[in-house]
Amino acid sequence: MPTDIRRPSAALRDPRWLRWTLLSIALAFVALFLVLPLVAVFGYAFEKGWEVWLASVMDEEARAAIRLTLLVAAIAVPLNTLFGVAAAWLVTRYAFRGKGLLLSLIDLPFAVSPVVAGLVFVLLFGRQGWLGPWLAEHDVKIIFAVPGIVLATTFVTFPFVARELIPLMQAQGADEERAALTLGASGWAMFRRVTLPKIGWGLVYGVILCNARAIGEFGAVSVVSGHIRGLTNTMPLHVEVLYNEYQRTAAFAVASLLALFALFTLVLKQLIGWRVRRAADTETPA
């Protein structure tokens, strides 16, 4: 049977001039603040040719920054994934006092400047900090070392997975989990066979966002890293060092790697969003 699809009346439609004005403003904003800077990054990165770009990227200090960035992300993202799944399960499946406080604490890194977060870690673990003397006595280095960078990155990125899963799990409810438990499934089997498939795409989406922020984090890492070249400089910090030393082509070459990763993340994000919408349309009854 053909579906009667009626267009809204003229009284309910926005005027054409208003739609074109809003569209023009949106496109101008995107071009000015997104497309133009991206074009400039790649333009400066390749202004002296592929050979110079490749030499800048393959420089020893650049490779050390890339390795450190990937190492920090490889540690912080799994930690935040475990925390996000646990926090989402706790918030959506249990009623307890302090739930609102827990949700506020999860959002804390969104409200606190990353620089302030880095200073807090310095006050805790620095040489003059609360735990500094004990750490120095036991020859444990956190600030101006890799552990401090991991801590700062984990702090600024830990809301992403939890904030993707909490509304998703709240919308899905717990009926299927209860049914599985009633039928004799163990807790782990219920989570693996019922819960995980339901939250799979949301979990992947949160992990992608978390990983993108971990790789691009600057403020908190800048405070705790000490800017030791070849040791504690991540890719964003290495870009800053090169630019301050007037090595513009090398700085933009490394920045282009970050831009490429951002574009890859954007494409992957859109693909996952498409898969989620397609799955939702498939499950919707006719």
Written account of the structure:
The protein has 286 residues and is an all-alpha fold. Helices cover 77% and strands 0% of the residues. The mean pLDDT is 87. The protein has helices spanning 16-45, 50-57, 60-93, 99-106, 108-111, 114-125, 132-137, 146-157, 159-172, 175-182, 187-216, 219-225, 235-244, 248-283. Helix 3 runs antiparallel to helix 11 (187-216), helix 6 (114-125) packs across helix 8 (146-157) and helix 8 runs antiparallel to helix 12.
Top keywords for this entry?
286 residues; 0% strand; 14 helices; mainly alpha
Write a brief structural summary.
This protein has helices at residues 16-45, 50-57, 60-93, 99-106, 108-111, 114-125, 132-137, 146-157, 159-172, 175-182, 187-216, 219-225, 235-244, 248-283.
SSE map:
Elements: H1 16-45, H2 50-57, H3 60-93, H4 99-106, H5 108-111, H6 114-125, H7 132-137, H8 146-157, H9 159-172, H10 175-182, H11 187-216, H12 219-225, H13 235-244, H14 248-283
Q: Which runs of at least 5 residues are low in confidence (pLDDT < 50)?
A: none
**Radius of gyration, CA atoms, in whole angstroms:** 24 Å
- The percent range for strand residues is under 5%
Give the helices and strands as they follow along the chain.
HHHHHHHHHHHHHH
Largest sheet: none
**Secondary structure category:** mainly alpha
Q: Provide the helix percentage.
A: over 70%
Shape: globular
Separate helix tally: 14
End-to-end distance, in Å? 12 Å
